[in-house]
From TrEMBL:
The gene is dxs. SMART domains: Transket_pyr. This is 1-deoxy-D-xylulose-5-phosphate synthase. CDD domains: TPP_DXS, TPP_PYR_DXS_TK_like. Its cofactor is thiamine diphosphate; Mg(2+). Thiamine diphosphate binds at residues 78, 119-121, 152-153, 180, 292, 378. Binds 1 thiamine pyrophosphate per subunit. Its EC number is 2.2.1.7. GO terms for molecular function: 1-deoxy-D-xylulose-5-phosphate synthase activity. It catalyses: D-glyceraldehyde 3-phosphate + pyruvate + H(+) = 1-deoxy-D-xylulose 5-phosphate + CO2. It comes from the Bacteria. Pathway: Metabolic intermediate biosynthesis; 1-deoxy-D-xylulose 5-phosphate biosynthesis; 1-deoxy-D-xylulose 5-phosphate from D-glyceraldehyde 3-phosphate and pyruvate: step 1/1. The lineage of its organism: Bacteria, Pseudomonadati, Bacteroidota, Cytophagia, Cytophagales. PROSITE patterns: TRANSKETOLASE_1, TRANSKETOLASE_2.
Length: 640
């Protein structure tokens, strides 16, 4: 179903077309753009509140700046739907985040208007600064470079690294701070307090009250006293704002705060800013979900990415199911952590800005004093955990697998080299789905297993996750990494009693002959389907859930290679350096020469789509594994 655009939007196929509108039409255009986003996301799903919040900003930016020559960099990119719609992708927008369709984030390959590919947070200032310096080196004086960054993304350290350099380089960089007080969950931390303070002028208001209070006492100065004090007040105000302004202290000219929903005013301001040379920041105050009541006034976290919904009632669609459903892995993590933390007073929970996404929120509600949201600060989350561990605390540091890439040196330098007992729970490991290449947790098995003092485990189901978490918090040295996927597990009755698993032991799921499938993690459930299917055809092959990539269960592996001369390894992770590679290394070191076929994420980018679609593309969905088994067994079955 194609969504019908309003009259003005229907004529806009590029920013050039937008510029043909009279300024007086911009408000109506914004209404249409907002409605188009509501109509599309309610039917097709995707990110929502953030794009609604920047409709006016997006319109004003494309109206004033000469994109794509002027370069517009969106931070994270989940708010760029309006940008995509204005820049010629309106009629493909129904394919957003679908297999083979538009990406949910700006992507260089997708459009010349997407100046930088994004998905992970806080990169916009550095990237736009790089572009601005390149323009300077090329003597391209008029070219503009704009980074649009949220108050959540501004909490990431790299944003400050960018501002630190920007303040001493005189280039055409404009930072637009889109301040809506929200990350995915409510923004936290001292920076948030600071931004709230300058938008509401608490410090200034206090000073003004003091001045007027004094005025009452000095009325003896006569009738001009009010005027005099008022002048003093104005000059103190500008002095205070300058002195206390964090961004000015980075040598950035600070403008604002301004209403980010007043499109006419934004157009005026951007026209002015274009003529002011050097690095500058415009502080815009916006509201997430603006213009769609349920999102604006309701739970903004839910409306960050609500899935499909009834746009009239605001009711979010739920998938109906008669049978009790297995829980999401993230919820098993959250509830299990509370169970463990209630018994062990040293356990502490840490999440970098994903309380809802990781379900750390369950501990934040149950035991708030021992659970921390540290903002979008993965590096800090890891080193903060290391610090806690030096003092005998047992940190469960939960980070999405792909975001953990940010904190790699901290894992090595601050945790593993120091042999500290930190537990890393890597959520969204493996193919993550509709968020695409930036969000797939493809590399963790490879990048974690090469670090000494680090156990690396992956559960095949909920019960295994609980046992691994239980095992990880027992007294030990070194890091313990547990990676699990996005989405549901397989056990509706998941609250199984927890027990210790001997580190570095796998388990036999099914004995067989000729061929063995070795799996790691939840993807083992696909192998169960395959061995059952083959069994029904009279073919009995073995299946082993290895559970640990590091240390490998060498005893079990010797046993397997003595009994099978054909092996398939399956992992929901990258083939280079991953689980299959670990098995090949074991074979090489021990002189085994079985015929091995490795299945996993190939050495190329896998884009977005549903998880099963992408598993299929990579050849390790149940059908792919089944066919590989037949190939290995040299059985040809005529294709239907
Ligand atoms: N960590 C990294 C490195 N990248 C991410 N994309 C995330 C976490 C997950 N994430 C996506 S959007 C978001 C987070 C934490 C919140 C961003 O907040 P803000 O920049 O204020 O944008 P808003 O959604 O409020 O418009």
């Amino acid at each position: 179903m194609l969504i019908k655009p309003g009259k003005l939007l229907a004529e806009v196929n590029s920013p050039e077309d937008l510029k043909k509108l009279d300024k007086s039409q911009l408000k109506a255009f914004c209404d249409e753009l907002r409605q188009f986003i509501v109509d599309s996301v309610s039917v097709y799903g995707g990110h929502f509140g953030a794009s609604l919040g920047v409709v006016e900003l997006t319109t004003a930016l494309h109206y004033v700046y000469n994109t794509p020559d002027d370069q517009l960099v969106w931070d994270v990119g989940h708010q760029a739907y309006g940008h995509k719609i204005i820049t010629g992708r309106r009629d493909q927008f129904h394919t957003n985040r679908k297999y083979g369709g538009l990406s949910g984030f700006p992507k260089i390959k997708e459009s010349e208007y997407d100046a930088f590919g994004v998905g992970h947070s806080s990169t916009s200032i550095s990237a736009a600064l790089g572009m601005s310096i390149a323009s300077k080196l090329d003597n391209n004086k008029d070219k503009q470079h704009i980074a649009v960054i949220g108050d959540g993304a501004m909490t990431g350290g790299i944003a400050f690294e960018g501002m630190n350099q920007a303040g001493v380089l005189n280039s055409n960089l404009t930072i637009v701070l889109n301040d809506n007080c929200m990350s995915i969950d409510p923004n936290v931390g001292a920076l948030k307090d600071y931004l709230t303070d300058i938008t509401t002028s608490h410090t200034y208001n206090k000073m003004r009250d003091d001045v007027w209070h004094l005025l009452g006492k000095i009325s003896k100065f006569g009738p001009n006293a009010r005027e005099v004090v008022s002048k003093v007040e104005t000059s103190i105000k500008s002095f205070l704002l300058k002195q206390s302004n964090l961004f000015e202290s980075f040598n950035l000219r600070y403008f604002g705060p301004v209403d980010g929903h007043d499109v006419d005013h934004l157009v005026e301001i951007f026209n002015d800013l274009k003529d002011i040379p050097g690095p500058k920041i415009l502080h815009c105050v916006t509201r997430k979900g603006k213009g769609y009541k349920p999102a604006e006034d309701g739970n903004q976290t839910t409306w960050h990415a609500p899935g499909t919904f009834d746009k009239i009632t605001g009711e979010i669609h739920k998938k109906a199911s008669e049978k009790p459903q297995p829980p999401k892995y993230q919820d098993v993590f959250g509830h299990t952590l509370v169970e463990l933390a209630e018994k062990n007073k040293d356990i502490v929970g840490i999440t970098p800005a994903m309380p809802s996404g990781s379900s750390m929120k369950i501990m934040m509600e149950a035991i708030p004093e021992r659970a921390f949201d540290v903002d979008i600060a993965e590096q800090h989350a890891v080193t903060f955990s290391a610090g806690l561990a030096t003092q005998g605390k047992i940190p469960f540091c939960n980070i999405y697998s792909s975001f953990m890439q940010r904190a790699y040196d901290q894992v090595i330098h601050d945790v593993c080299i120091q042999n500290l007992h930190v537990i890393f729970c890597l959520d969204r490991a493996g193919i993550a789905g509709a968020d695409g290449a930036t969000h797939h947790g493809a590399y963790d098995l490879a990048y974690m297993r090469c670090i000494p003092n680090n156990v690396v485990a992956a559960p095949m189901n909920e019960s295994e996750l609980r046992n691994m978490m239980y095992t990880a918090q027992l007294p030990r040295e070194g890091a313990f990494t547990i990676r699990y996927p996005r989405g549901k597990g397989v056990m509706p009755d998941w609250r199984t009693p927890m027990k210790e698993i001997e580190v570095g032991t796998g388990r036999c799921i099914k004995q067989g002959k000729d061929l063995a499938i070795l799996t790691i993690g939840h993807i083992g459930n696909y192998a169960v389907e395959v061995t059952e299917r083959l069994s029904e055809q009279g073919i009995e092959i073995g299946h082993y859930d290895m559970r640990f990539v590091k240390p490998l269960d060498e005893e079990l592996l010797h046993d397997i290679f003595k009994n099978y001369d054909k092996v398939i390894t399956v992992e929901d992770g990258c083939l280079p350096g991953g689980f299959g590679s670990a098995i090949l290394e074991f074979m090489a070191e021990n002189g085994y020469s079985a015929k091995v076929k490795r299945l996993g994420i190939p050495d190329r980018l896998v884009e977005h789509g549903e998880q099963p679609e992408l598993h299929k593309e990579c050849g390790y969905d149940p059908e792919g594994i089944y066919e590989t088994c037949l190939e290995q067994l040299e059985i040809t079955v005529p294709k239907a």
